[in-house]
Amino acid sequence: MRHLPAALLTTLLLCLTATGATIGAGPFQAPQLPPSPQPQPEAQPQTQPDTASRLHPGIQLGRRAGATLAARGVIPTLVLVPDPASYAEAIAHWTPSTIYPVLIDDGSWATREDIARFVRSFKPDKVVRWQADSATNPTASPAMRPRRAIPNARQLTDNALERAWDFAPEPDTTDDPAIAPFANQPPPLITYWIQNRHAPPGIIIADERDPAWTAALALAAARGQPILWTTLPKLSINGSLPPAEIDAVCTQIEQFCAQTRLPWQTLGDALDAVTICAALPGRIETKPKEFVATTDRIGRHPDASRWAWAGQIFGSEPRAAYRAMCSIFLRTQSAWLFDGYNSTQPWVQWDCTAASENLKEVGIFTMLDDEPNNRLRDWKLRAERPVHADLILINSSGNRAWFDLSGSRARAGDIPLLDVPAAMHIVHSWSAVAPGAPATIAGRWLERGIFAYIGSVHEPYLQAFVPTPLFAQRLIAGMAFGAAGRLDAGEVWRITVLADPLFAYRAPSPRLETDLPLEDAASLRDQFKTAATNGEYAEMYASLSLLGRDSDTARLATAMLRDKPEHLTPAVAEAALFALFRTGMDDEFLRAYVVLPVDLANDLNAVDALWHVGRRAIRERSNCREAALTLMAAHIRETQKDADAAELQQLGGGRP
Predict the structure, then answer these.
(1) Is pLDDT at 22 greater than 70 in this prediction?
(2) Which phi and psi (to 5°) does residue 502 adopt?
(3) How far is CA 29 from CA 202, 265, 376, 429, in A?
(4) DSSP state of 21
(5) Bridge partners of residue 203, in order along the sequence
(6) Dihedral of CA 23/27/31/36: which sign?
(7) Whole-prediction pTM value?
(8) Minimal CA–CA distance to 222: which of 198, 241, 255, 240?
């Protein structure tokens, strides 16, 4: 068995103490670069018990990664940028001791909803817009595409990462092909980190063709992790690959780890996490129609022993950036638990009531739906309003597009909208078969704003899931998310981690009263005032939503509909719609829905919100009941049309 060099072991143990979490601020606390791997002598017997060594390696990892973030001061300003080049340049202005969140606003409905969710959770003091000066960043960003990165993604990432860590590399003047990836010397940035006493907790995998490079940059810059740039065999998150192609990817990863000259071959050493920032297929086809999870294969030796925990972030450049920024900046303070199981064996071992008690012990506010309030009607009542929870734990059964709750069936369209970003663990078969498809359970949750998801890519059987109470215990102990959702032993299997595996429950970072190091940043509050002065309703409502001021949006929109209804244009309806939903202004929501552009009126998030509003209006016998029924009849969801038609007939008293 390999052992850590003494200096590195001392550093890692310091990270586990309450007062020693200083990585990332002031003088770094990591060892000098260790020599090339050599056989190590057996450890000498200890005369004193080593408390830290008895911690689960996943807890050690979570606390190491959390300490790096907790020690870095946060400027409580959210920076919104219009393009990936500006995103990279904004992150380049981070320092080893100071960071701030950066999100891409491409103007789309989905992106602005993500930003609004982030704002409600992070609660920034300011929200600003900023764009890189073309004089300092001459590489212009071409138009973004959902499944392809901009052409200069790697160049932007590498440059920004080095600058964020105050690293100025020596010019590369050699043409020697031997000086290439996987040569004998570690990459210069890793050498710099080690010499400055920072030990990376893991590595990141990126493909410069894939738009999720934005997540790779953020996570690498935030936690000091090296990036392996490679050409992955396929970029299709909903697809699958044969074992040989994944084995080849694993070989590249292991060669890169060896090149770093950091210990990596066992859990509890230096490199214990692998984050895939790309749409690498989420499944491995081991034999016809039999699959295991890609993220459960990566990080294992050929004999299936684990040396690291893997997770995956995919999506467009704005969406991948959002998921990474949530992992870096947000904390778990509230939770929603829904237990669709009964209290008999073996189901009771996954009991959400017990998990809720565990979370309450550390002050996490919990909302619990368990027996006898765990049926479909209870779920739909909860979904009538957006759920405000940082953590969601669910027990259910079913398939990729439906889930049973105590004997009654719900569909993907019944999934609630979210007020804030959330991490999620769902005990449910098949949910993550196609996480890029919104018609599936995982796909719908990820569309809703989930930034970290643990679920299954096939039928894993109940015993493959970490029991929900134990998962809760692991999280509040500080275990890394990627480790908390995996059993400690066993063969490569079917649970996947669609998340930064280093996300963890941790102490907050200090908020700094420091000026943002970006010139000419424009206050979103000032832009709102200008829009209000000019009577630009769409821009006014959009700005308010991005500032997290839904009640103000709803109040102003309601007054406009009463006094100046002629100003309800499609753009105004789009900007105000979800604020009206979140604040329960059902009549105004339905009036706005009627004038939406056709493509947005058929957007799954909008249609699902319509059905939630309609159920509420009918249950409460609202004056807008008939309007709700008419719109619901016009927007039956193709992926669940039989269920929608049956429910509509029941709600509408004979309506088709």
Answers:
(1) no
(2) -90, -5
(3) 16, 22, 52, 43
(4) -
(5) 274
(6) positive
(7) 0.90
(8) 198
